[in-house]
Design a protein that fits this description.
Length: about 280
């Protein structure tokens, strides 16, 4: 009886990885790869006037999809795009509603207990957007003021920590989307809107209205390492995702993609350039 139980336990242990590592086989059989994106995260992911996903992270995922199609021998592989939110993106990957998430998700150890991540795709920092006439220049200047931030993000957590460390009594107003934060700031209902620096710049550029005058704080209060989210426990699929990313970095083709979506913001920072260089893994 004991021997039989041990055999069953061993069989279950070997069956779990096989079941978990089924993403590539599922894609091969269905002829479809399902990619998730957040609509309001320009210049990383957004929908154009035709409703088509666009942006830096979206292009990276399209490159990955093309490489997977070649690997599987499926040149006619279809791409299905699914709109996600900041609040449901992790669950969508966990429950395999999408094979890969293509936006601005920060890679953290806590999140890695729920999902897996590709090589890093971008390095950013969190800051606060204010109106141009706002006297605050640093986070410590927001005592008695209100700061909007998207709920459930690493920015919310780090913002609360930074305010506590600075002993700054600011009110944190949680919101669901960047558009909501920008609207509250325009209307004067909050004094600042906290998010990733590049995403804040993108939000202003994409939705600039006449008379808008904004600026960012002089300091960042966190470092955000973006990566593509994928299901946990699928080493073969993770390798299939990382191969084309490493090739982009190794051949410096990433510079062309960066220039297309982020070029107006200036060249890559030294930290981002180093991130690309270090991750240009050889075959």
């Amino acid at each position: 009886m004991i021997a039989r139980l041990l055999l069953l336990a061993a069989a279950a242990a070997f069956a779990l990885p096989a079941a978990a590592q089924a993403t590539l086989e599922k894609i091969r059989k269905t002829g479809v790869i399902t990619l998730g994106y957040i609509e309001g995260a320009a210049p990383f992911s957004y929908a154009d006037t035709n409703g088509e996903p666009q942006g830096y992270s979206v292009e990276l995922c399209r490159t990955v999809a093309e490489a997977i199609a070649a690997q599987l021998g499926r040149p006619q592989l279809k791409t299905s795009w699914v709109k996600l939110t900041v609040q449901n993106r992790i669950e969508a990957v966990q429950k395999r509603r999408v094979d890969l998430e293509c936006s601005t998700t920060t890679w953290t150890l806590a999140r890695q207990s729920q999902v897996d991540f590709s090589l890093m795709t971008f390095v950013d920092g969190a800051s606060v957007l204010t109106k141009a006439d706002e006297p605050a220049r640093r986070l410590a200047d927001f005592g008695g003021k209100r700061i909007a931030v998207m709920r459930g993000t690493t920015t919310e957590r780090v913002l609360r920590q930074a305010l506590g460390q600075n002993m700054t009594a600011a009110e944190v107003v949680t919101i669901n989307a960047r558009e909501e934060g920008l609207a509250l700031l325009r209307e004067g209902k909050v004094d600042g809107f906290a998010s990733d620096r590049t995403a804040l710049i993108g939000a202003v550029v994409m939705r600039r209205a006449e008379g808008d005058l904004f600026r960012l704080l002089d300091e960042d209060f966190s470092i955000e390492q973006y990566a593509l989210m994928l299901p946990r426990g699928d080493a073969d699929f993770r390798l299939a995702v990382n191969r084309p990313l490493a090739r982009l970095y190794r051949t410096r083709e990433i510079e062309r993609i960066y220039a297309r979506w982020l070029g107006p913001l200036g060249p890559p920072s030294m930290l981002l350039s180093a991130t690309y260089f270090i991750q240009g893994l050889s075959e």
